Amino acid sequence: MTLEKENIRLRAVESSDLENLYLWENNIEVWKVSQTISPFSKYTLKEYCSVAKTHLQGAKQLRLMIDVCEKSGITTVGMIDVFDYDAVNQKAGIGILIGDTKFRHKKIASTAIEILVKYAFSILNLHQLYCFISENNRASIDLFLKQKFEICGTIKDWILYSNKWEKVCFLQIINK
User: Fold this and answer.
1) Is the predicted pLDDT of residue 54 greater than 60, yes or no?
2) Prediction pTM value
3) Pairing with 146, which of 87, 97, 104, 137 sits 20 to 30 Å away (CA)?
4) How far apart are alpha carbons 43 and 146 in whole angstroms?
């Protein structure tokens, strides 16, 4: 199984991804969803790149880069994460970021999620994937709903952002 569909490919983090990671991880606009509260240094991210290849079972997380492959070349546009991996209960969280804004709303995230779900269920043998999305982030909720995730409930006062508490929707997809 290759982690690709059409012109979208998921691949392991490489040291050449350092500049993109530096830009995306330090973008204050995405800190709300990544629960980041301070910037990352290039040194820290370089160290991360060197250990990002650690096996999922050891690290309990996996980051894959999202590439768009075209005749003109390959462009890395984002990343998709599997986190809180639980082998016993066969579940994990999922998160995605299209860091390059000119590639948003082009079905790249949707295809990347589709590829990851197939990989998680057929190779990682997971029973379910889940995510928590701010109730105010309608675009992300719709993105996951289109990929057959279901809203299973809401959690009050889950995210503190700009001194206001926000609800999150809990979404999951179960391998049947």
Assistant:
1) no
2) 0.90
3) 87
4) 38
- CA distance to 43, 75, 92, 93, 94, per residue, from 83 (Å): 22, 24, 6, 5, 6
Amino acid at 9: R
Confidence class for position 1, pLDDT limits 50, 70, 90: low
Which homologous superfamily is 4-126 in?
A: Gcn5-related N-acetyltransferase (GNAT) (3.40.630.30)
CA distances, 141 to each of 87, 95, 110, 166, 172 (Å): 26, 12, 12, 15, 11
Which residue stretches of the chain are H helix?
18-25, 28-34, 42-51, 56-59, 108-122, 138-146
Domains of the chain by residue range: 4-126
34 within 8 A of 61, measured Cβ to Cβ = no
Task: Work out whether strand 8-12 and strand 4-5 pair parallel, antiparallel, or are unpaired.
Answer: antiparallel
**Which pLDDT score is estimated for 167?**
95
Among 14-18, 29-33, 37-41, name the most confident range: 14-18
Would you state the structure tokens that stand for residue 123, as one six-digit string? 């190779």
